[in-house]
Design goal:
Elements: E1 2-8, H1 14-26, E2 30-36, H2 44-52, E3 75-78, E4 93-96, H3 111-131, H4 133-137
Parallel strand pairs: 1-2, 1-3, 3-4
Amino acid sequence: MKKMLFLCVANSARSQMAEGLARHRFRDRAEVVSAGSQPSRVNPLAVEVMEEIGIDIRGHHSKSVDTLDAARFDLVITLCADEVCPVLPGTVRRLHWPIPDPAAVDAQADRAAALQAFRDARDAIDARLQTIRALVDA
């Protein structure tokens, strides 16, 4: 079983959606974790757009990358775009998927635009997960 880690800054949106999607897509073929360099809370819009596709991440919580041991992961995927991604020291295979932070869209000002930003991030992550299926199955 492959061990995967998704990293971003707040561990509130992209990495949480990636964790939920990867768990759903890879099921028992991968152990999936997410974390951030400045963990906060899971964004309610991330929960909402994941529920739209039948994946429940309500039980997720933000975790700090500082509490993780790099040696236990086979693959680390960073999801930062404009911000500085957290670093997990060690020799582990790394991928970088620069996906814009959907939380940057102000949900108070335009909820529809914010939801669409979360959907776009979710769908971009899901498409990229399809490209690493062979890594998980190897």
